[in-house]
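protien #1 (seq + structre)
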Amino acid sequence: MSDSITCAGGSTSSPPAAEAKPGSATGLPARLRLMSFNIQAGIQTRYYHQYFTRGWRHVLPDSKRVPNLRRIASLIRRFDLVGLQELDGGSLRSGFVDQTAFLADTAEFPHWYSQTNRPLGRLAQHSNGLLSRLVARRVDEHRLPGRIPGRGALIVRFGTEEAELMVVLLHLALSQRARLTQLAYVADCVRDCPHVIVMGDLNCNSHSPELQYLCTETGLREPLHDLPTYPSWRPERNIDHILVSPSLSVESAEVLDAPLSDHLPMTMVVNLPERLHGG
């Protein structure tokens, strides 16, 4: 199921960002700085036992949440496209703060796009969000298949129909069977686009059957494997990923040592082909 959604805009002022060269037909830059980060609704977790001793922070307001969101904003502001998972869209636990909008405004991103996948009224608004220094041509919200509802894909298209960059933001299910079904759906969405970035918390490692399936079906690749991101205080599992089409050359890929959530942020710098940036 797919729905076209309204593009949301934040502050029009921003720090130095990606800029297209003069005469570019697509409005895209030659180089993009990417980040994928599961921020756990702004909760900083340092030990496993805090899931239990401080679990109330997932349902009730916490005075430390906004200061931590400001630290996250300071971290992400030097990137061009930031895919965020596990945000709150504005409910009791977040003090009715739309965290996507808050981070876009605080980090001075001019554009932001949000998808709420599990709305629980005043209690919680489980969301994903993409912060961008580039204006999107089209944004689509997809509900991913699965026995338990509440997973989605946010597909954001930049450039023109003839020279398009597709960015897909995901937070996949916990069960392998559901992830295989969800990535089969994603593969159908991106198969015909030659320039694709897929990022998110995929809840599986680089060598998992489901991730190998997606790469085989679409040609997407992960330049560096086995970069652990979870848990942030002792990273052992690589479940956060950024995958790119072969047409995008990768300068670097790394995990940042920034334990502001229970995940660490994954980052990548890519160069776009001339067809996209018009150089």
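ok now protien #2
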Amino acid sequence: MKSTRVRFVRRTATAVACAAVLLPLTACNDSAVESDDAGKGSQGTHAGAKPNGVDKLAAKEIYDKGMQANADAGSFREQMQRSDAKSDLRLSATECVGKVDLLQHGSFEVIRKDSDIWGKVDAAFAAWAKENGEVVPADKWMHGGPENTVMKALSSYCHHEQFTKPDTADVEMTKGPVTRVGGASVVPITQKEAGKSRTYYVATTGTPNVVKEDSTTGGQAPDLVFSEFGVAVGAKAPAGPIVEAPQG
């Protein structure tokens, strides 16, 4: 894939690095919680949606259509879970709202709207950051732009390239039989490379959105669930006191 091979590495190898230091946290948003709400809000999964014929296509074509459909939705909810972290984010090309939990290292909330970024870390996260040479205030909303090192790190979980540069396939994939995910009819397509495997589930009715990604490698490998396609993110500045973010 144009970036799938890169993403596969990014979502596994970087997981260890992201658990070790606060900065940089680039590409730390890597997986998703399996949910019965997968596909909620999507044209591809609502009751009465008509078959879209995507399951008749070759695996690579299915992948491309699914990734493009997600981008064309303009926004969606992305849930992630792996062995050391989980997150629940609502995303668009210019907005991001949600929470990231590093499990053993604390959690933080993040809001991004265009070039404005707000973040609030809990006490455990602030203590972990301090151990790694970064001083950030706990339980206070911080504000800064993408040029601010700390805010850039926190917002790195907001992978806006999913909307601006959706993935296309350039490695072999295989197609499985139509099945169901969270009540939605989907066709699974699987990428296998270097002993690792990742399966993408694409809706076979309505809009052919990718509603779920599963890794079979375990450990640091992520899983993802996408839902609420096209639902407005509604990012806005948090209420209450806001402090300037440290540079890091």
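The chain has a mean pLDDT of 83.
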